[in-house]
Write a structure and sequence with these properties.
heterodimer; A: 378 residues; mainly alpha; 3-stranded antiparallel sheet; 5 strands; 3% strand; B: 401 residues; alpha+beta; Transferase(Phosphotransferase), domain 1; 5-stranded antiparallel sheet; 36% helix
Chain lengths: 378, 401
């Protein structure tokens, strides 16, 4: 409902409140306020007078909007149409605040931008207002979470941008200071070196003059190269610092909600919910103490092993008969469940695929060597 | 033709390096049984066959630049001939003056145990071959990111409790896997823990490893680098178990937390006294039978340090947290029978409590590890004085060679 044009044409001095007709000429402190409900302009005293007692109808003839006092505000733009469009735009943008990274393609993102402009234009020009409004409301209520998340992200970006700016300024200042300092140091050192050479020339023999002068030059050169390497070191450190800062500032991955069922926005990325992290398994999938054919007991009667159980020295050294039990039993059962035919066919299949198999070879070899060794021992 | 490939008695025993050729033989029987089962092979053709197979393996790899050299081995960077982007480290064992008639124990142990173990936290042995000059070459996994010692020592590398937990987890899994296969590593220390390009820690240097001893069989107590050696070995125990590695793990854990070796003795005696100071004096009360150990030294009755409790560990290692301190305490128990086994260590609640271990890809890392790998793999394991040795290794400049 665009306001009538005659309200808008006004001069600075003889501005007249359309409601109470008092003019700026009589009341230089007069301020005009508008309400985004209907954008009819009126002076502050009128607002106080009419709306202090609660919501009331707009006093402009023909306008039946109910206005509230707290919604009145100062006008930003001279043109009330611009004012209104900006308000509408702000509201729509707040609801349709999808971000580019949420879309499948550039094309989808552009489509979305166009769609948003169209909605804004509809609301501004007043075409299909009720349908557009209801669409917008439906979308807003369905995507509350993603809207809020994107708002938070935006706010964060704004603040981090500011931080970045101040940080950069600070760094520039430090650099300038360092450069100044460096220049000063160098100048002072050159002066000091020169003075040193002169004093030594004064005290030394005239024949040494050339050597002293050369030495002075050398010292100066050495100092300056040392300074340069020091500077290099500092610069590297600063660069590393900057990198780590940049890493920290890395934007968090936006988690997008599934778009509402109304399907107002097309081309949104399918949301991959990150797989919940599995609890840490200290054995990384292997099962400790798993034995297929037997259960290991803590004690087996054996006359052969009894002396060990009584030998304090072996016990104190930590020799553990259970390790021996475990090993002997494992070796006793090692051949069971090993089906050579199957393994051979599997191996041939894998060779056909061209896989290298150093592991199996190694195992076969190990089996041979270790069994041989055990036989020797027993 | 009916001879089984696995019972082919080794006719190559007359060769100069029996162990190597035996290995090649077994390998050949595993890969090409139809060749190995030739009826009554004459010595000559068999030699040719093994050499042929050896050549086949050797041709698989291309030697690239030298990564490091020690008294015991030279390490080269190598790559697969078929796939130049796949790196390997080729460790060439030097013919040693001490072992003129064969191979050094370290090399045999390394080959014997590494080829049995295939686990993400243990360095992989891809192949073994002998080069023209009869040297043994081990083709090992290429681990370019250096070792844990390098990260511990570098003040510019910052890491936290979650990173320590991740590293300890990988170490503990590697050790547990060794023990599950009845192998004692016996030289666990930060510079034997190499780091792969994806951040995975791998247990390397099996030069001192051996399988669990049968009952009544003596083992040597002169193993494990001194600072990481458990008290029972310092006291000369000849029968011990897997928990000797757990003590070393505890020392590595403490070193990761403190960033300096925790108990660093200059001599074996000094090491014992430092351990007593740190963890308590071993007595018959807290370690029944300790006084029967061969090298046991009766402690001075006036200077008995009581066994340290949980508060001590919590005070010493505040960044481990109470649960971590508890685990460390159980890894550093004086009495080996009360010490946790590698499996029990992994069952501790510390692993599942907060903070969660860092993902291996996000662990702190440092460049320049290739040289370090070269150094680590050329070192002979064990009892060499760490200080003297380390400095010597650092001083060697391989780039000029």
């Amino acid at each position: 409902m665009p306001p009538q044009n005659r309200i808008l044409d006004r001069g600075d001095d003889d501005e007249v409140c359309p409601v109470c007709k008092s003019s700026r000429y009589l009341n230089p402190d007069m301020r005009f306020l508008i309400n985004p409900e209907c954008y009819h302009k009126m002076c502050e005293s009128c607002v106080d007078r009419i709306f202090s007692g609660g919501p009331a109808n707009c006093p402009v003839a023909g306008c039946h909007k109910t206005l509230r006092k707290n919604r009145f505000r100062k006008q930003t733009f001279e043109d009330i149409n611009v004012e209104r469009e900006v308000d509408i735009r702000r509201r729509v943008m707040q609801i349709l605040n999808r971000r580019e990274e949420e879309f499948d393609s550039k094309r989808a993102w552009d489509d979305f931008l166009e769609q948003r402009e169209e909605i804004i234009a509809n609301l501004v020009t007043g075409t299909d207002v009720s349908k557009t409004e209801s669409d917008l409301q439906a979308y807003a209520s369905e995507n509350v979470r993603s809207i809020r998340a994107n708002q938070a992200l935006e706010a964060q970006e704004a603040t981090s941008f500011q931080e970045q700016q101040t940080l950069e300024q600070e760094q520039a200042r430090l650099r300038r200071q360092a450069a100044r300092q460096e220049y000063e140091d160098e100048r002072r050192e050159i002066l000091a070196g020169r003075e040193d050479v002169i004093s030594r020339l004064a005290s030394g023999k005239p024949t040494d003059a050339a050597t002293i002068a050369r030495e002075g030059q050398k010292i100066l050169l050495k100092k300056s190269s040392a300074r340069r390497s020091e500077e290099e070191r500092i610069r590297q450190k600063q660069a590393a610092l900057r990198n780590s800062d940049a890493k920290k500032a890395g934007a968090p991955v936006a988690t997008t909600e599934r778009a509402g069922d109304t399907g107002l926005i097309k081309g949104l990325k399918k949301i991959k919910t990150p797989e919940p992290e599995k609890p840490y398994d200290p054995f990384m999938g292997m099962v400790p103490n798993k034995r297929d054919y037997y259960t290991l007991r803590d004690h087996y009667p054996s006359g052969y092993l009894d002396p060990i159980r009584q030998d304090t020295r072996m016990q104190a050294g930590g020799y553990d008969v259970r390790e021996y039990y475990s090993r002997t039993l494992l070796e006793a059962f090692a051949g069971l469940g090993c089906f050579v035919d199957e393994e051979v066919s599997k191996r041939d299949a894998s060779t056909a695929l061209g896989l290298s198999r150093p592991a199996t070879e190694g195992a076969a070899m190990a089996a041979v060597t270790s069994s041989g060794l055990n036989d020797e021992k027993i | 033709m009916a001879v089984s490939p696995l019972v082919s008695h080794s006719p190559s025993a007359a060769s100069s390096s029996p162990a190597k050729l035996r290995a090649a033989n077994v390998r050949s029987s595993a890969t090409k049984p139809e060749n190995a089962s030739s009826h009554q092979p004459s010595q000559n053709t068999d030699r040719e066959l093994t050499e042929q197979l050896n050549d086949e393996v050797r041709q698989k790899y291309v030697k690239d630049k030298r990564l490091g050299e020690g008294t015991y081995a030279v390490v080269f960077l190598g790559r697969l001939r078929t796939d130049p982007s796949s790196f390997v480290a080729i460790k060439k064992i030097k013919v040693n003056a001490e072992y003129k008639d064969g191979l050094s124990m370290d090399a045999i142990r390394e080959v014997k145990y590494l080829q049995e173990l295939s686990h993400p936290n243990i360095i992989a042995l891809h192949d073994v071959f002998s080069s023209k000059d009869q040297n043994l070459n081990l083709v090992l996994e290429y681990l370019p990111l250096g070792d844990l010692e390098m990260l511990i020592k570098d003040g510019n590398v910052h890491y936290g409790a979650a990173d320590v937990k991740a590293w300890m987890g990988m170490l503990a899994r590697g050790v547990w896997f060794c023990h599950e296969n009845f192998i004692l590593h016996r030289d666990i220390k930060p510079n034997n823990l190499l780091i792969a390009s994806d951040g995975e820690v791998k247990l390397a240097d099996f030069g001192l490893a051996r399988s669990f001893a049968d009952p009544y069989l003596n083992m040597t107590h002169q193993v494990i680098t001194r600072w990481y050696r458990p008290p029972e070995l310092l006291y000369g125990a000849r029968q011990y178990s897997g928990v000797v590695d757990v003590w070393s793990m505890g020392m590595v854990f403490a070193e990761l937390l403190l960033r300096v070796p925790f108990v660093a003795g200059n001599t074996d005696l000094d090491q014992i006294s430092k351990i007593c100071e740190a963890f308590g004096t071993p007595t018959e009360e807290n370690w029944p039978g300790v006084s029967k150990l061969p090298n046991y030294i009766a402690p001075d009755r006036n200077h008995l340090v009581p066994t340290q409790g949980r508060d001590f560990f919590l005070r010493q290692f505040p960044n481990a947290g109470p649960v971590g301190a508890d685990l460390l305490m159980s890894m550093c128990t004086l009495d080996p029978r009360k010490r946790k086994t590698a499996c029990e260590v992994l069952q501790h609640i510390w692993w599942t409590s907060e903070p969660r271990p860092t993902d291996k890809h996000d662990l702190p890392r440092k460049s320049g590890g290739t040289r370090k790998m070269g150094d680590d793999l050329t070192r002979r394991g064990g009892e060499i004085d760490e200080n003297a040795f380390k400095n010597a290794a650092r001083k060697l400049d391989f780039s000029a060679m």
